[in-house]
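Reference record
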Amino acid sequence: MIKKINYTILMFFLVLVSCQEKKETEVNKAAEVIAEVREDHAPDSRVALFEVEANKKGEGYILQGESNLPEAVDELKNRLKEDNIQFTDSIRMLPDEKGLEGETMGVVKISVANLRDEPKHSAQLVTQATMGMPLKVYKKQGGWYYVQTPDDYLAWVDYGGVENMTPDEFSEWKKADKLIFLESFGASYQNPEASSPTVGDLVAGDILELVSEENGFYEVRYPNKKKAFVKKENARPYIEWLSSLDQKKESLVETSKELMGLPYLWGGTSPKGVDCSGFTKTVYFLNGMVLPRDASQQVHTGKLVDTTRNFENLIPGDLLFFGRPATDSTSERVVHVGMWIGDNKFIHSMGEVHISNFDTTASDFDDYNYNRYLRTKRLLDQENNQVRYLSEEDIFTDGSSEISHEE
């Protein structure tokens, strides 16, 4: 009797294990399609949102998650239909116009806004946005907004850093004449005199509306409509500045040296602190070019110049990339970037913005970075769709602004 009971229990256990193994090995066909679509449309989650999953329900699946890529979601649904996979679409498309009350655009309203990877001040700083930078606003959580910068970077900014606008309000903001602040650090004033109380601090690259001129000052308007005055010697009308840029290697070197000594700041992309790619990004931005955010993204721009430490082929402005080369079992990892300035030297943010030497006979030879050097890329005068030129794209204006202010 005992043997019979034990045999029955054993058979029940074997059937249970067999069913469990079958359940665990059951293929989620929808998940396979999702992975393929994600690889095609959103391989880099830093710049594209496609957080979609498929959960089994009956004979089909429920698609859940969110995305800011309507073309990717449309392709996913079409491919599922072609494969005769049943599904219910519960994907949340961004922007969340209802939750944002139609304010799906924004403009940075302080000198430097900190953008983080989660909606809280204790979260990691991933990038920064300077005043006047337009932002796509996708959703809101408490006092935080999920936004996308002109270089497509996705992050969270708190309400104190952004002026939210409807598309119509944003269009009106773009029509206004603009001013760009060019000193590394400065301030705006309540009245057209330096002894006047300050309205706020400003850093190089900040962009405000230009109203008029008075007593050696520009009258400006902040994105949140605050009025102030900026010394003429510290700024220029945006269109005038843009037309004056020559985007040559000499100007890149000059700009880079103006930022010497800035402290290293993880996630920093402004004169208040820069990480390595934030430094190169800032240098190029102040010369009218918008680079991708991170070193591992910047490495895919431009033309390959060197991979063998033949630095004779380099010209000032070239970007040098550092990290771990690929092996049979590991992929390449780009972790650092600097800019060549000539004479066997490059400038970069590591501890602080400083110049390093690749002359192997020099007493200050930088053997650490020399030994982890990967390659050099040239961005100047190269066709590359990952580098945006302010002269060719109306990021801050609607393209109709004219220089109408007296010198």
